[in-house]
């Protein structure tokens, strides 16, 4: 396998693998068909995560007893870590399309398990979802990147720009799940004005998995109706991918790589971890999971449910979703103008600022507007991490997409898992996590800047040999 240093180009050119175009079959689909597949793929993820995203947002609130909700989410991402190693082999065996179909079905099973939440139902369903999540996301990344590269050849455009455009469109669709899912949550779980009376232990003072306020739990029938709607949304995702998404060969059959058998695909994920360029990105990948886990786990429980009631989680997270959608569209186009270093720096500054505010802020029931501001700002930062990390992998590791995306999801899932599990113990408070996450973000950015310096230095050394 070629190293990532051999895949970089000079600073003024898109960082695309030099041999990227050797055997790409640009005649597979027409441009319209590429765009059709992108829309179907985007809608599949929209319906799938309209269900899962909303469940994730309220899991720490509706199943707070004994930390069941947070434990469920932690197991999802612990299982995802293990499945990340198997994802390339799964995609090679089933193909990208059918991997997406089977994995979205597993997400539906998790929705069904929430009808009867207990350790006996949620824990096995969480394991199943976790083992399907990495193949789903790696298949999506592989399918989207390959389609974008093919389209770039057809229309004679720069592959990096088309990859960024495709990622911007998909994540714009994807992030609207925060809008539709949370509208459902708010509408069904409306508590008719019932609000917590004691909020002295909310915000950064909140500790452990329990909700530290006198908040009334949602009506059981309302919860059942909500999970029924989520299950229906998940089945729509399965049918869309099964019936309307065109089947493509895996990326390893279209690009000149030596991934070989399923066993070698498994080991290629492990081997790529030792690539120094990918090693420098591991803290960034983990932070992209940590920041998402914080907003859907700690923020929704300790700042929203604790001060406003669980029904307000949906409303506040709509602000997060709308901001994320608009920012995804903007960042998908802005990278060609500003460069990705500016965007990564902007995302880091936004999240550091918001975490500082959450550390200093003492939330009260009457201060609900600040929740919307924080959620919207967090959506801007999250959109940057999600779109730019995916684009960065597609561009820098274009000849080994599946192992690279597997590593991304593995380390992102590690961030999710650590964040969710660390929120369960009573001694761990939100202010502890805010300090830890901020410190990790600073380390992540230092290593990211080292990554950019390394690939640009190596690219500049290659130029004289080519001229």
Radius of gyration, taken over Cα atoms and rounded to an integer in Å: 22 Å
Major pleated sheet: none
pLDDT < 50 stretches: 1-27, 249-260
What class do helices, strands and sheet pairing give? mainly alpha
Ends distance: 26 Å
Helix content: over 70%
In DSSP terms (H or I, runs of 4 or more residues), the helix count works out at 15
Shape: globular
Query: N-to-C SSE series?
Result: HHHHHHHHHHHHHHH
Mean pLDDT: 81
- Counting DSSP E segments of at least 2 residues, the number of strands comes to 0
Beta content comes to under 5%
Family: Belongs to the unc-93 family.
Pfam families: UNC-93
Protein name: Protein unc-93-like A
Main location: membrane
